[in-house]
Bile acid:sodium symporter
Amino acid sequence: MNRITRFLPDRFTLYLITTVVIASFLPAHGKGLPAFNAITDIAVGLLFFLHGARLSREAIVAGITHWRLHSLIFSVTFILFPILGLLLRPVLEPLVTPELYMGVMFLCCLPATVQSAIAFTSMARGNVPAAVCSASASSLLGIFITPLVVGLVVVNASNSPVSFDAVGKIMLQLLLPFVLGQALRRWIGGWVHKRKNLLKIVDQGSILLVVYTAFSEAVNEGLWHNTPLPALAGLVVACAVILALALLATTLLGRAMHFNIPDRITLLFCGSKKSLASGIPMAQVLFAGHAVGAIVLPLMMFHQLQLMVCAMLASRFARRPQGDDGDH
């Protein structure tokens, strides 16, 4: 039974699918849409505030001395992924619509996940302290780097109207609450740590709100009428190809750098994953006035694929003999 459930969507993905279905048949419109946008902004700000209050400063700076591993992870996340998106464009873009491939390019520019990257690294008996440092730093640096990379890569590739002013908007919406949470961590950090379920509710709830709002706007603009079924099938292929190449690249780079197995595992899971939690709020700001629903659809598809594949890989690594962590 466990082998079968590995290939099934996780509960949160089912929530996402349900939200998309609701938005498709009952989209917010008229005066309701600005209200949902305001509620969503508050929820996202609260999410990053709680993350700031929860993440210790020691965790932020831990493992920084392992610069070879971290620099390689960041290079894969913010350089290799966008290059893959650009190089594969002539092959993959014909499989999807131009709007969907713009979303593929956007996901290539995103930072790594935090929770799942660390969870899979821990499950696979990788270098967990390095994973905590790398994934957290990637998420934080992504607030600055992703808008710049999107501006360079997506604008040049698609002529999409992305403004560099979005950097300031993202800092205001995401970084400022995070910094406030860090500043108040001394007084509320313990309280937040004891209420992990609260963070999970806010985390998932804010994403579902953003997805509902984004897809409501897209449905109102005719998303499903303009997205044929062959394009959706092509999107699965495009996401699978990019994920496979990222996993292959991180595996080969880990061996080429002669990392031990725990460090290779950290590189694999932190370098190949893209953040849904950071990506959807960023898309809402970066592509304001654009078809955000089509932009985030590839990210949602990639998110589910990476969870299923990485779960199988982590399980395989976990079965290796104890002490088998050498450079081979």
